[in-house]
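FORM 7B - TANDEM STRUCTURE REPORT

SECTION 1: FIRST PROTEIN
SEQUENCE AND TOKENS:
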Amino acid sequence: MTEQVLVTGASGFIATHCIIQLLEKGYNVRGTLRTMSRADEIRGIIGQHTDKVGNLTFAEADLTKDEGWKEAAEGCPLILHVASPFPLDNPKDENELIIPARDGALRLLRAAKETGARKVVLTSSMAAIMYGFKKQPDRPFNENDWSPLKGPGHTPYTKSKTIAEMAAWEFMEKENPGFGLSVVNPGAVLGPVLESDVGTSAQLVQMLLQGALPGLPPMAFPIVDVRDVADLHIRAMETEAANGHRFVCVNGTMWMKDMAALLKEKFPEHTKKTPTKVLPVFMLRIAAMMGKFPKAGLRELNKWREGNNTMARVTVGWAPRSAEDAVLATAQSLIDLKLV
């Protein structure tokens, strides 16, 4: 009998790629949506990339509400909890992100326990691993690192991901729910965009192609291809040895200037407006005061962070694409969809 997998946040960038790969592997999939009004649209998008979309159904469930989670999880021994708020800029009240991220994860885990699930894979973030350090380690970050909540440089988003993941591991320890938990911690998720709602990370490449920035902030991002994020979720779901582990999910870090140079080299016809000059920090501070650069981004200037993905490679045989390939795949998909 074909097993059914619940994928939460089915309209999201990572979730849609998870669903496509699961369907291609022969699983039945139930995806959660905040409102069923998007069901046909999401089914249509996914149906462009697999002929097995007939094995996809949807259920309505909202991170901020108790209703619907048990019904969504019923009959799904395997669960990928991907849903989490991810804004382009930060809200004034950090609890707008922290509460739905934490409480949504706990709602899902309680539903998994009530319905007898066998395995849950939670999408966390490198935000839960590499932020808030007064002094950054002189090595790549790994699964033993946790972002100190009272440390400097946190944003509501990085706090929300850290608190939500901590709550999930605490739930496992206190409740002993009878299922295995694995956590995937992606960095900046790039790769093939499937629709016009490109997602927060892919907007970075979109802005570079469009020349939306007058110059390049001195910012660097640990990058991973969305197809490899989905692959790691599924490998963790299928591998018993992954139980109890969190996985660094990045494969290379790139400065924005290097991303821009790569795009200009590979897509000369589409990068005539792409900037090449790195902006000085003082200009970006002025721009932030004028509302033309996100204030949260000021904390990221001249920060270089790397992740060590050995745990994922060794435990589940993960073999991700390079950061450069992820950037180019993002750009090609944006061009193909005429979004630039």
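SECTION 2: SECOND PROTEIN
SEQUENCE AND TOKENS:
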Amino acid sequence: MSVSKQLGRILIGLFLILSVPATASFAHVRKYVWTQGYETLPKGEFELESFVTLKVPDGDVSREHSWEYQEELEYGVTDHLNIAHYERWETQNVVGPDDSTVYKGFKFEAKYRVGEKGKYWVDPLIYVEWITNPRERHEDKNPNEIELKLILAKDFGKFNITYNQIMESQFGRGGRTKQEFAVAASYEVISEFRIGAEFTGQYWAPGSHRNELSLGPTLSWENRWFWIAAGARFGLNHVADDVEARVIVGVPF
């Protein structure tokens, strides 16, 4: 199936979802798909999040792309501390009949929301994630990686701006560290529906003289039973993928 047909089905699904009236508000709703926000689950609450990400490295060869699938189960230990577990898969689509889906490992996450919203000049959150991919062992690579984020967010009425300072570091001898960022802004156009934009990139990438830079739009919306966020980003230089698109659906329970 071509990328255009798959994106068409996603857009139809989003249209059907958005036709359901929204009557409730959740404490933990993603405003963005690439940028982590200042949100945590209430104590004792669970949430299931499903991620689907399309990556097209070269728009001139759109039939060579990949789909990433991620399932996350998150739990509110306290109103300020959440823990989560992720399972990950990837489908590599290439020209010809050799498409294949492989297991990409799992992740453990902890995030801590500092203070309450509005207590400080900005709202801070600390995020720690351990990532492992067993397949890396077959390539003589260390399968473990740690990701640290400092999230700073601020609301101005219906307008939100959020910044992520990100460090990704590989374990083991010879492991490399990336310094990245994500900055996003959004506005609540109508009740529970926001539009925004995200700008992502790298301050430092080992072995590269040019760092990835991407920019794109984001939409988010919540329903009485679940919330959804969708976005795309487009590479601003040749280092970044030409196109990436992501949809996240969250179901609290």
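SECTION 3: OBSERVATIONS ON SECOND PROTEIN
The two ends are 34 Å apart (CA to CA).
The domain at 3-250 is CATH 2.40.160.40 (Porin).

SECTION 4: SIGNATURE
Preparer initials: ____
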